[in-house]
Amino acid sequence: MTAVVQAEGLTKYYGRRRGLEDLTLDIQPGEIFGYLGPNGAGKTTTIRLLLDVIRPTRGLVRVLGGDPRDPAIRSRIGYLPGELALEGRERAGEYLRFLGRIRGGVAASRIDELAERFEADLSVQMRKLSKGNKQKIGLIQAFMHEPEFLILDEPTGGLDPLVQQEFLALLREVRKSGRTVLMSSHVLAEVESVSDRVGIVRDGRLVAVEDVAALREKAVRRIELHFDAPVPAADFQGLPGVRDLRVEGAGVRCTIDGRPDALVKAAARHTVVHLVSAEPDLEEIFLTYYSEEEGHRDRQESA
Amino acid sequence: MIAKSLRDNRRALAWWSAGICAFLAVYMSVYGSVRENPETYSGIAMDKFPGPLKDLMGGFQDFQTGAGYLQSVVYQLFVPMLFIVCATLLANRIIAQPEESGTLELVVTLPVDRRRLVVERWAALVLSLLAVACVTLAVAWAVSVAVDMGVAFDRIAAAHTGVFLVALLFGTVALTVGAATGRKMLASAVVGVWVVTGYLVVTIGRSVDAIAWLKWLSPFHYYAEGRPLYDGLPVGDYLVLLAATAVLALTAVLAFDRRDVGV
């Protein structure tokens, strides 16, 4: 089977400013690929290259086995831009029907069904839509023609939690029907529940591609434990994976690198009254996951 | 695509047509009194616009005849300028404005070839301007009959065609700059500078030898110098305008097809 996305040495410079450097990536059919990185890391640059909005400085990109410059290839893609601009007096429903016609015809019932799921009001003029409602229109237009490949740039921005749930449900349906998704985010929690693999991009470079399960094991978690009585610090010192340990009376704070098993077993010897496990954020993953690589590079540079 | 652009333009088109028609009606209906007191009005016009300013307004020759009045007041400066502004604003909606506001990003990812996108939206510009031109021509003709100007329909139509072609040319200039750079202000500025210098060259600059040759670069040279109101359709001159427009439109298509959008 041909890969849905094939990028080789894909590089984009905006003048002298680097947008993306030497991206090599394959995304397989049926996969949900989470594309993670802080703002300005090169996520949107990659996505725009995949859709022929911008052209590579060098390198090769193939989407669905062809050149994204070919309109026939683009007709098989659904796209939600990161900063979706909708304006004018036109009503959202009219605009969706226009997009549907250009994409080769979308049944009105399909648009209505999606609008109902997202609770979007299609009779509103586009310039009067709030950010969240614009995002709903953007999602409807990306999903409505049931494309083989969905490219979603920061899809959950501005959505309220209920609509986010509906969006994730829709994504699972897409995966079930064997279609492919590339979605970008700067929050790991947003993509990890639905993604099969995650790519992490930083400073224009793809620094890692991991299975979500593997990434979660490597992720750092901040853990806070409260006991009914002060606990001896010695019980928690030197546990595998436990770092930044602070024991203060009945409270223990630390970060966990990988499995929390040893910490849980150590804590189980006392009475736990309260436990907080903070979701790892991307920054922390960067700090730990890549500190090694960084250190390595620093040493090479100083040598 | 064409239908969509036309629908998006309809409100603007209605306002522009109404505005230009109102202008035509008001200025042309004054002709009745001009004809009755030719000396007074010619005198006023001469006093109001001394020396070079008079050149700038086209010289006010035979102000009291129908054709002369029509040329001086309507087809010399105001109506072409209104059309050019209208054309530039509409042309900016093709690429530069949606690119700056961000709506173009989704449009270029649709399964439509970029060259087709530019061509179809440009075609919509042509049709939009044509609509405004037809409506205003009908009003101009009606008013000229009402105030008994004595200018034949084909002469008015010839002048109106010139206005349409000049406006289309400048609209296409705006499109081309916008398609190549994605910047609305730059596109408008290029049109503005070309319009002003082009107009000055064929009016005040006519008598200055050093810059007289520049008239070949001024679209107004191919419009007003043919004296369509007096002599009918200047076919050769209008073909030059059309050819220049076609070259610019082609440039716009090629330029937009080559570049990054929205960066």
Automatic annotation (TrEMBL), chain A:
Any single Gene Ontology cellular-component annotation: plasma membrane
Location(s) in or outside the cell: Cell membrane
Keywords: Antibiotic resistance, ATP-binding, Nucleotide-binding, Transport
Primary localisation category: membrane
Family matches, as Pfam families: ABC_tran
Single GO biological process annotation from the record: response to antibiotic
Domain ABC transporter: 5-228
Gene Ontology MF term list: ATP binding; ATP hydrolysis activity
PROSITE patterns to which the protein is assigned, alphabetical: ABC_TRANSPORTER_1 (PS00211), ABC_TRANSPORTER_2 (PS50893)
Alphabetized InterPro entries for the sequence: AAA+_ATPase (IPR003593), ABC_transporter-like_ATP-bd (IPR003439), ABC_transporter-like_CS (IPR017871), ABC_transporter_ATP-binding (IPR050763), P-loop_NTPase (IPR027417)
Membrane topology of the entry: Peripheral membrane protein
Gene3D superfamilies on file: P-loop containing nucleotide triphosphate hydrolases
Lineage top rank: taxon: Bacteria
SMART domains in UniProt: AAA (SM00382)
Family: Belongs to the ABC transporter superfamily.
Name this polypeptide is given: ABC transporter
Source organism per UniProt: Nonomuraea aridisoli
From TrEMBL, chain B:
Highest rank taxon of the organism: Bacteria
Name the record gives this protein: ABC transporter permease
Keyword Transmembrane helix: yes
Keyword Transmembrane helix: yes
Organism: Nonomuraea aridisoli
Transmembrane regions listed in the UniProt entry: 12-31, 73-91, 122-144, 156-179, 186-208, 238-256
Pfam family, any one: ABC2_membrane_2
GO cellular component, one term: plasma membrane
Annotated GO MF terms: ABC-type transporter activity
Keywords, comma-separated and alphabetical: Membrane, Transmembrane, Transmembrane helix
